[in-house]
Specification:
With 213 residues, this protein is α/β, with parallel strands linked by helices. Helix content is 36%, strand content 15%. The protein is elongated, with a radius of gyration of 25 Å. The protein has a six-stranded mixed β-sheet with strand order 3-2-1-4-5-6, with helices on one face. The longest helix is centred in the first third of the chain and has 17 residues. A hairpin with a 5-residue loop joins strand 5 and strand 6. It has one domain.
Length: 213
Amino acid sequence: MPKINVARKSTSVDMTAMCDVSFLLLTFFILTSKFKPADPVMIDIPSARSMTKIEKAIVISLSKDGKAYLAFADQEMRRETLQKMVERVGERFPDLKGITPEQTKQFGFIEVFGTPLEDLPRVLKLNGGDYKTYQDKLPGIPTDSVHNQLADWIWAARYANPKMKIAIKGDKSTNIKDVQRVIEILTKDADVHRFNLITTLGGGATTEEKKEE
């Protein structure tokens, strides 16, 4: 009986489905990614050898000239912190009592801020373009002994979330006295005795060094 020869055909793979899945995954990652907020000033973080990872924290940033800025973990905490702040210092800064619920909601979108309390109501009324211009020249949160507003913010933030960790991120050129002043505010004025110092490893990876006072 003669052998039947089956004709050979080239194998073809339909890549349409794979391309669709790839584009869907790419779109998903783009839409769900949360980008790191831009710092109000460029901070060259000093290096260290030790490392302690923290996922969320109240970050106090110090610029080269010693100006202090705050970054909170999430929108809801920022709004609650502002409400606690109004309750705490409303008598000293009566204009804060005029902050509307809409402005409180707007404050929740500000990831990094450094505004004196007396100027905060005006800043929250700025539109997008004007606020961007203002944000590029943030004056910082007062930390001097007369207008120690940083301690008030830390108190309000801890009332909003008592479990939230606190970290200090300073420029390597920041005067050590400015760093010591922030540590003094945390330990003496805000009753915080455990915090982290954000540094970098030799390869440039960001780390946190835990400090206890």
